[in-house]
Amino acid sequence: MWRLRFLRKEVFYMSKCFAGNEVFSARTERKETGVHCIEYKNIRMAYGEKVIIENFNLAVEKGEFVTIIGSSGCGKTTILKMVNGLVRPVSGEILIDGRSIREMDLTALRRNIGYAIQGSVLFPHMTVEKNIAYVPNLINKKDKAKTAQAVEKWMRIVGLDEELKTRYPSEISGGQQQRVGIARALAASPEILLMDEPFGAVDEITRSSLQDEIARIHRETGITILFVTHDIDEALRLGTRVLVMNEGRAQQFALPREILNHPATDFVRQLIRKKELYAS
Ligand SMILES: Nc1ncnc2c1ncn2[C@@H]1O[C@H](COP(=O)(O)OP(=O)(O)O)[C@@H](O)[C@H]1O
Ligand SMILES: [Mg+2]
Questions:
Q1: Looking at the structure, do residues 258 and 181 belong to the same domain, yes or no?
Q2: For the segment 224-280, what is each residue's pLDDT rounded down to a tens digit?
Q3: Do 101 and 13 lie in a common domain?
Q4: Does the beta carbon of 21 sit less than 6 angstroms from any atom of ligand 1?
Q5: Which numbered atom of ligand 1 lies nearest the CA of 71?
Q6: Which residues share a beta bridge with 249?
Q7: Cα angle at 131 between 178 and 68, to 5 degrees?
Q8: I want to staple 42 with a disulfide (CB 3.0 to 4.6 A). Which of 92, 145, 198, 230 is the partner?
Q9: How far is the CA of 229 from the centre of ligand 2 (A)?
């Protein structure tokens, strides 16, 4: 069982991303270890005859918060689902900590990867407490006190009031359901958290407070996050690096300020321009 690393080392590393024939690189505050947390190698993906993703290469370092933005249908969800084996590429490889997921047991793999998606995916017949306790229960087996502690801890971390414990999903708001979903994903102590437009269905104020929570959780736990969004502000605000996709191809993978100051393609430039138009 992998464990969450609560300490992050402030050292330097160089990471690279190849997309098609282009090479992107970004220097951030990590050490070059040679082994990436998540690596996509020469990925080609098709559903039937329809090619969705081609020549896709990406390396994500441990502790990064990568936001993924792009037009609808460009393959963002597919990119996330390849990490936990829900979708298998036609060719190419996904490596986690340097190991191909083809060699891994999918159940064990998924237990180490939290997956939070848009809308409520909670068990409707279970209380908030039971929903969050689901994986800790599997791990702690008979140690009920340990599970109760875990539930309390994660509810506090995602900003849920303790009195909500006994409510059912239908008895709490959309924003609260989203928090329960995140607490449930985190309660398994995953090394990696995949989030697919998790805040898409909540109002602006709730969205902003959920963004604050996830940024804080990321800072405090050092968990590696892949976060899909269609909101450029959200992508730039949350991401330590931002991946911009269009039609199955990476347009740019860079620090937020790099995206803003030096958009690599017309597509990225338009995305930024739209943001400026809305802001003015
Ligand atoms: N199970 C599937 N079968 C066939 N086509 C699919 C399937 N899942 C996704 N697609 C298609 O693949 C493309 C990429 O989908 P997706 O990764 O969900 O895009 P995004 O999340 O960026 O909107 C879309 O054109 C979508 O219609
Ligand atoms: Mg999607």
A1: no
A2: 999 999 999 999 999 999 999 998 889 999 999 999 999 999 999 999 987 776 665
A3: yes
A4: no
A5: 22
A6: 246
A7: 35
A8: 92
A9: 9
